[in-house]
Amino acid sequence: MSKGNTFETDFLALIFNAAAIANIADDAGTGPLTDLYVSLHTADPGETGTQDVSETAYTGYARVAVARTAGGWTVSSPGGVGTVNPVANIDFGECSALPGAAITHFAVGVAASGATKLLYSGTVTPNITMAVGVIPRLKTTSTITED
Fold first, then answer.
1. Contacts of 1 (CB under 8 A, 6+ apart)
2. Which of 5, 7, 112, 138 could bridge 90 with an S-S bond, Cβ 3.0-4.6 Å?
3. Contact status, residue 21 vs residue 28, Cβ threshold 8 Å
4. Hey, how many other C-beta atoms are within 10 angstroms of the C-beta on 1?
5. Phi, psi (rounded to 5 degrees) for 53
6. Could you tell me the pTM of the whole model?
7. 107 contacts 118 by C-beta, under 8 angstroms
């Protein structure tokens, strides 16, 4: 069973922009998240994984906080499909040593570190080959879809 096109966009706006869905959901709970945390992975963390599954560990890496607002994420519905893109490029820390494996996936979760709830994950295309001096970047064209 799928969601209706309008509800897909409403749902993504609730998660990524903290925008209420009239008569269904709001973001007025005690201490709602103000940021979502983007992570990089060397393999697919999977639907049953947490945000630390296959998370990269190169020297200099940390998850990046992105505001749960229209200033952090663009939510739209081209062709009736709910999509989310970062408003600005998401740059991670520069690799200063121990680059590890290539970055193949990214994820969005709820905390700056640890085995926390994974909201969405997807592939990084093209993969990011890690080496000392590389600054991994997810561009504004990186897309999350809800369909």
1. none
2. 138
3. no
4. 2
5. -70, 125
6. 0.93
7. yes
Cα 23 to Cα 133: distance, rounded to the nearest angstrom: 49
Q: What is the pLDDT of residues 49-81, one digit of tens each?
A: 999 999 999 999 999 999 999 999 999 988 788
Identify the residue whose tokens are 């639907």.
47
Tokens of 128: 């990011």
d(Cα 135, Cα 93) in Å, to the nearest integer? 6
Tell me how far apart the alpha carbons of residues 24 and 101 are, in angstroms, rounded to a whole number.
43
Residue with tokens 């490029």: 89
Nearest to 109 by CA among 29, 35, 17, 30: 35
* Site of tokens 């970055």: 103
Residue 37 near residue 109 (C-beta atoms within 8 A): yes
DSSP label at residue 53: T
